[in-house]
Batch of 2 targets.
Target 1
Amino acid sequence: MQKDLKIAYYGDDFTGATDTLATAARAGLRTLLFLGLPGTGQLERAGPLDCLGIAGAARAMAPAEMQAELEPVGQLFAQLGAPVTHYKTCSTFDSAPHVGSIGAAIRILQPHAGNAFVPIVGGQPNLRRYCVFGNLFAGAGPAMYRIDRHPTMRRHPVTPMPEADLRLHLAQQGLAQVASIDYPDYAQPAGMLDLQLSGVIAQQPDAVLLDIAHTDHLATVGRLIWNQARRQPLLAAGPSSVVQALAAHWQSEATVAPNPIAPADGPVLVLAGSLSPVTARQIAAASSYEQLLLDAARLAHDDDYRLRMAQHIAGRLAQGMDMLACTSREGHAVADATTDARALALACGDLLAQILKLAPLKRLGIAGGDTSSHAVQALDAWGLSYQAQLAPGVALCRLHSDDPTLDGLEIMLKGGQMGGEMLFEELRAGQKAV
């Protein structure tokens, strides 16, 4: 048992897991993100922790796969004794009954926490995600959209979002009764709000959705969660705003000064499996890289092609060239997205593993949630620790591995919607951390 542990979280994809890692570390919490279920030896090597994470890929799994993935996680977290177990979801809550079901995750993990209160935190203001009267909104460029009208998320290739009311969205995933507390209620005295929450919990809902319409709401939500967690360990679901809310309540958000990001020491590889328009703009702006457009279908299904591409990329890296390998420059999804997107992500992971065996690097970037998950899983590594922040939702991390050629590798994992236009250039040239 980690006697100081406050939060144990499982990230449903690797990019989101690193965002929570960065959030906790910047709040002054001793934090380590494991790349799989840690063994006793790895837990001992980690030392005392306030926040322990496991990076997973449940977002891309069917419910039966999620059961096999999450049941051991729930057992471990119960043994560790953290007051808060956090199932970290994407800030856009994109999920479906058949893949990445948040409802399935809650049903699997909640019995290991025991508390009848299952808070779901909607919204993450630093990523321009807001939950208002149970409805989710997200920014795209300068504009704000209800999530079911968001230009990218309403047509996500795997888990499109046709419903903005998160209570209805989660009801489709088996959480038939999701109660809610709306943000205007936070203005009432703390005692009255506590009584309101007690009344909601007494109705025995499957979960309680908590609005986040402004950064100031985080501390109030954090207090509600922590007061209940001190009585009995609980499961919370939502994006990194779960940890932000707790940190705001503990008043420790600014205890760690930002770290500068130095220019890369050697050539940089960016592997972009993301199909989003945001990543497409970042690729277009990455003028310092030699760019290679990969044939997505051949990469996913042709082992010889994948080996040739790995050899070509490794060769150019060995010559000192920064390389950007991408499966799309236009932000368009591949055909038959449910099948091909996962096959492509797995292939990208295999490609990366082959490249790093041929040309070890000191700094690496991976774009795309599923691509990041499978790429890191393909490496012989066991953990990530926080280095610095490149952009909201995008952290630069240090890889922990027993392989000396991988240990210490600086790695950026980013979701398709994250980062500014010059992100890949900043990964190479360095920047002042934000």
Target 2
Amino acid sequence: MGHAGGRWQEASDDSEEEDEGVALSAESEATLDACSQLRNNAGFWLLGLCNNFAYVVMLSAAHDILSHQKVPEHNGTGPIPPSASPENTTTNTSRYDCNTISTGAVLLADILPTLFIKFSAPFCIHLFPYGLRVAICVTSAWGSFLLVAFSTSTTQSLLGVVLASISSGLGEITFLALTSFFNSAVVSAWSSGTGGAGLIGALSYLGLTQAGLTPQDTLLFMTIVPVIMLASYCFLLAPPPQAPRCGWGVCKPKSPRAPSVIQQPLLGDRLTLPQMTQKPQLTLQEKEQVAKGLLKYLIPLSVVYFAEYFINQGLFELLYFQNTTLNHPEQYRWYQMLYQAGVFISRSSASCIRIRKIWLLAILQCLNMVFLLFAVTYMFLPSIYVVFVLILYEGLLGGAGYVNTFHCVSEESKPEHREFAMGVACIADTLGISLSGAIAIPVHNYFCHLP
């Protein structure tokens, strides 16, 4: 009896030890998951920051790019004699202080390549590994800073802006598609990072030029940003088992403890990972159905971005106040910085505030655009600080439209459709921006030819 009791006691002890081992294993896995989630959130935040950085800086530098304010003795902090900017003579007969070329031209150079990429990519981008796409993004962003910094003509500068657009457009559709393999929290991290790019990009350009650096030296200093993007993608992300775990197009072997994968990444890894369950490719008809289902979010988002970028690139330059200590280039940089500050705040607010009525944001942004258009036409605003408040409000609306649209798309899409849906949703804001740039140029020319 005692012997049996001893065996029972030993079995009980073994059972308790096994339970403790399971508990410790579960606790360690939970800790590992929390650590991985923290890394992924940080990684996507940095990817969002770096991806949009060059795009934002080019818009912040638009006035300088068109004015060629790269000589140290002026540095955008004082009036520039005509000899310093032969390609950009101010229109003396107009009531407005205008560039000969609208900053909308920089916007178009910064967005049209993105528009082309986003329209074509959802249907063919799955043929290219994620690593290759990231390599193109990094190289294009780095080249854009160098080309604009050393440019000797407006045409060369605009080519540099085009490179920034290629990097931003390809990066956005790549990284948003990549979020479909991760916890949905990374969408908020990505969105916050893109908002941070606006604020940090505009503020750093403003701060460095105000501190005495020329626009050229400022752009050269910013070549570190593409390197940070590369490091974030290669070393910071902790991809889950179902994610494409790839470097420069070479897939790493799956962990032996990883569970079976239910999704096939967009890399064609059939030879590398034959044991994976293949996700069937969506047919053209299925893709059309997914796209149609997203229109209730995408159309309002396009309107939001059309209105705000019409303000930014069509009206900012015309909202010039002479009764301040800031000259025209400085005022333009402050407008861009305040707008990006509003975008950053609202894009980082998704965990606190969710808005599903994107059409309401579109209406408010259009009202903002109409009011500022009347302000430019009749010049009735008494102070630049009123414009500062309106621009901050504009950024809040735009950032809220972006982050809430992508959250709605991510939550309402079926798992097998989510990767494609997130890529298609990228088209909406780009289309709105492109239309605003095309309209901003003739509007700018109209106002600048008024007596």
